């Protein structure tokens, strides 16, 4: 997999600052990504250059290329970092919750995480104002997780309704979830719902659409808890692995 991350020695990046202070490559790469994030949200991908990023990060232009061979690879690395952060945040919030995990809790925490991360929300909605041409190559990051696999597992256990097809349930879930992020900027102010009320509203809507008529028993609640935790842990680990793979390249 081409990631574009290279060691400073390979690209001739400075090992010390202009004042002779040793440079921590990881710290510098983080500052560059932070700068790229600010500029991406402020001006969009198509209007942000490597020179802009270097200036915003307070580094030489060559220092950016010491980590990424091209502008596109820099921005892809940024989006991978943000996606990993979102999935780790959802995983950690589910672990800290004072109730068993289920699909409703997963959806609510996922919406909250996306609300707090406008770059990942831009990937979800393929926002070309922010992502520009990059929107075409981020399709594999649109989902907040492998939700289809999770629904398959919940259906196999009989823990959600099965009188609707998997395709119908995926349609309902994604329409409600993605629909909020697509339509929220378009709604008149009189129909604006406070941000902190939205996660519960979306999660409850999904639950009501997918829950089975009979309440889950204690053993079933415990089983769903395990499945949901395993699901988000695997999603977070996969995102972290992609990120670590880039760093090792």
Tell me what you see in this structure:
It is built from twelve helices and no strands. The protein is mainly alpha-helical and 249 residues long. α2 crosses α5 (71-96), α6 runs antiparallel to α11 and α9 (147-156) runs antiparallel to α12. The protein starts with 7 loop residues before the first helix and ends with a helix. Residues 1-13 and 140-145 have low confidence and may be disordered.
The top-level CATH class of the largest domain is Mainly Alpha
Largest sheet: none
Strand content: under 5%
Radius of gyration: 21 Å
End-to-end distance = 9 Å
Estimate nothing, just give the exact number of structural domains: 2
**What is the succession of H and E elements?**
HHHHHHHHHHHH
Number of strands: 0
Bin the helical content: 55-70%
Q: Given the helix and strand composition, which structural class is it? A: mainly alpha
| Average pLDDT reading | 88
- General form: elongated
CATH architecture of the largest domain: Orthogonal Bundle
Uncertain runs: 1-13, 140-145
Summary, kept brief:
Residues 26-86 form the HTH tetR-type domain. The protein is mainly alpha-helical.
State the main characteristics.
single chain, 249 residues, mainly alpha, Arc Repressor Mutant, subunit A, Tetracycline Repressor, domain 2, 2 domains, elongated, disordered N terminus, Homeodomain-like_sf, transcription regulation
């Amino acid at each position: 997999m081409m990631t574009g991350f290279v060691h400073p020695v390979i690209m001739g990046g400075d090992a010390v600052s202009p004042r002779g202070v040793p440079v921590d490559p990881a710290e510098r790469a983080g500052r560059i990504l932070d700068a790229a994030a600010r500029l991406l949200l402020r001006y969009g991908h198509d209007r942000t250059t490597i020179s802009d990023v270097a200036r915003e990060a307070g580094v030489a232009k060559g220092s950016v290329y010491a980590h990424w061979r091209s502008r596109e690879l820099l921005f892809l690395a940024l989006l991978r970092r943000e996606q990993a952060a979102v999935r780790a945040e959802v995983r950690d919030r589910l672990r800290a919750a004072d109730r068993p995990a289920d699909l409703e809790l997963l959806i609510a925490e996922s919406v909250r995480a996306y609300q707090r991360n406008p770059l990942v929300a831009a990937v979800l909605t393929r926002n070309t104002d922010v992502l520009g041409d990059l929107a075409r190559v981020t399709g594999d990051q649109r989902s907040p997780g492998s939700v289809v696999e999770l629904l398959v597992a919940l259906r196999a256990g009989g823990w959600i309704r099965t009188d609707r097809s998997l395709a119908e349930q995926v349609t309902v879930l994604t329409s409600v979830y993605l629909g909020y992020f697509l339509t929220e900027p378009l709604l008149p102010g009189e129909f604006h719902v406070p941000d902190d009320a939205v996660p519960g509203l979306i999660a409850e809507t999904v639950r009501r659409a997918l829950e089975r008529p009979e309440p889950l028993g204690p053993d079933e609640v415990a089983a769903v808890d395990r499945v949901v935790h395993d699901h988000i842990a695997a999603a977070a680990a996969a995102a972290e692995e992609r990120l670590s793979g880039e760093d090792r390249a």
